[in-house]
Amino acid sequence: MPRFLLRQALLPTGWHDNVLVVVDAAGMIASVTSGSVAPDATLLDGAVLPGLANLHSHAFQRAMAGLAERAGPGNDSFWTWRETMYRFAARLAPEDIQAIASQLYGEMLEAGYTAVAEFHYVHHQPGGVPYADPAELSRRVLAAADASGIALTHLPVLYRYGGFGQKEPQERQKRFLHTSDAYARLLESLAPAFRNRADRRLGIAPHSLRAVSPEMLQEAIAALNAIDAGAPIHIHIAEQTAEVEDCIAWSGKRPVQWLLDQGIVDQRWCLVHATHLTTDEIQRLAASKAVAGLCPTTEANLGDGIFPAVEYMAAGGRIGIGSDSHISVAAAEDLRLLEYGQRLITRSRNLLAGGADRSTGRRLFDAASIGGAQAVGQPMGVIAAGRRADFLLLDQDAPALAGKNGDSILDAWIFSSQMRSAISEVYVAGRRVVEQGRHIRREAFAADYRKSLTRLLEE
Predict the structure, then answer these.
(1) Is 273 one of the catalytic residues?
(2) Does residue 70 register a pLDDT over 90?
(3) Which of residues 376, 395, 418 is at a domain's end?
């Protein structure tokens, strides 16, 4: 059984020195013992953190990062950005999906993410005709995850309508669409690929309240429950004020209010963005034990707004972070921006520390690691027996971390480091996938990625 000696490690009870971690053949932690001497163990000589879950990813959008930064003739917004995304998605071939996801997942691992929830909504050929295998593009995502070594929660997206009230979709959305029956068949065809895998979980992602009817939402949950009654359910919600206004016009209620009123939201759920909340919605969402899936760099890039994190976390609300459109892929950056957004709107500091003389970095990291693990439905988030052996090694010789110990390591990594520069090694299920800050297959992934991107941008 592999044995690791962690020179300094963050455990559920705090920081400990010389921690011996024994890992079983499945990559799960069998035991954790502090204050150990184990000269035969693999030494991780630095600060060791549990790997983080990236709870919201649209992998293909990594390849369009930077393509929507030229000003249009009118007021640019999420909705004008979406037009660029539609045009780009129409060009993607199956091999592009795999090449882009492989590159992205390697970058995620280098950035400290050891698992990802892939909110996967490009399903069909351009024009909407299914592939001979309707799960073709999902299988490309699974292949990319296996090649990179990242743990995957795959969330095939249910998308049927173009707006609230069951408006017909646009021509550009046809690659995304399913009926309830076709969607259930997709889940059934994918399910065998997730059995007996500690590094995979199959869930669902109703795209948004505007893209599915209430009946389809219930049918999708029933289809998932027939496969795995505890699996994750993710949904985009309340990202834009226009979405909130349209939902009120359709139902008389705000999106989060409407969803909570259905009585179905619990700890299986991840409400992605949930940017625009009332005080009542903040309290109710926190009480539901669902996770708010926050993507600060993407939300800033798209001009979504700022999530009310201070009030939500004070109410006991659970959070996790994701890189979403991947204009940046850095766990530390998203955690930093989450705090900085609150500082900018209140003109105060250390708002998410949770109390006097507490570390802001530690509280953010703990919240994201525990909430992220819940959202992806995987045995991760802490270094403890029964959890997967996912480790993130910070190099304490990195300039930003020099002389730091305990929680000050997290404060320095999140608020003063050059994002990835302090991450030296990353392990998933006890297997090293990043060494000296570089993914072990970085060059191969980059070559395939450049080939796809060159073709996509020449068209």
Answers:
(1) yes
(2) no
(3) 376
pLDDT in tens, 19-30: 999 999 999 999
Sign of CA dihedral 97, 99, 102, 105: negative
Q: Please identify which residue in the block is written with the tokens 């890189």.
A: 323
Q: Which two tokens stand for residue 422?
A: 């302090």
| Annotated active-site residue in 96, 199, 304, 324 | 324
Question: How many residues belong to the chain?
Answer: 459
Respond yes or no: is residue 324 known to be catalytic. yes
Q: Are residues 366 and 252 in the same domain?
A: yes
Neighbours of 237 (CB within 10 A): 29
Which residue from 29, 27, 21 is spatially nearest to 48, judged by alpha carbons?
21
Best CA proximity match to 250, nearest among 169, 177, 163: 163
Instruction: Provide the residue range defining the domain that includes 301.
Output: 52-376
The model's confidence at residue 218, banded by pLDDT at 50, 70 and 90, is: very high
Model pTM score: 0.97
Buried b (16+ CB within 10 A) or exposed e, 68-105: beeeeeeeeebeebeeebeebbebbebebbbbbbbbbb
Is the residue at 459 inside a domain?
no
How far lies 396's CA from each of 47, 326, 393, 405, 430, in Å?
A: 7, 27, 9, 9, 21
How far is residue 383 CA from its own chain's centroid?
20
- Token look-up 């059984």 returns 1
Residue 246 has pLDDT above 70, yes or no: yes
- pLDDT class of 76 with cuts at 50, 70, 90: confident
Element (H, E) at 284: helix 279-288
CA distance 224 to 218: 10
The Cα 352–Cα 355 span in angstroms is 8
Other Cβ atoms closer than 10 A to 268: 23
Q: Same domain for 157 and 254?
A: yes
Question: Which of 319, 354, 376 is at the close of a domain?
Answer: 376
Whether 367 and 348 share a structural domain: yes
CATH number of residue 40's parent domain: 2.30.40.10
Domain count, the chain: 2
Note the pLDDT tens digit of each residue in 256-270: 999 999 999 999 999
Rg (CA), the chain: 21
Does some domain include residue 458?
no
With 90 as the cut, is the pLDDT of residue 91 above it? yes
> Quick check: 105 and 111 in contact, CB under 8 A?
no
**Angle 118-120-121 from CA coordinates, rounded to 5°:** 160
Confidence of residue 459 (pLDDT cuts 50, 70, 90): low
Residue 419 has pLDDT above 60, yes or no: no
Active-site choice (56, 273, 326, 439): 273
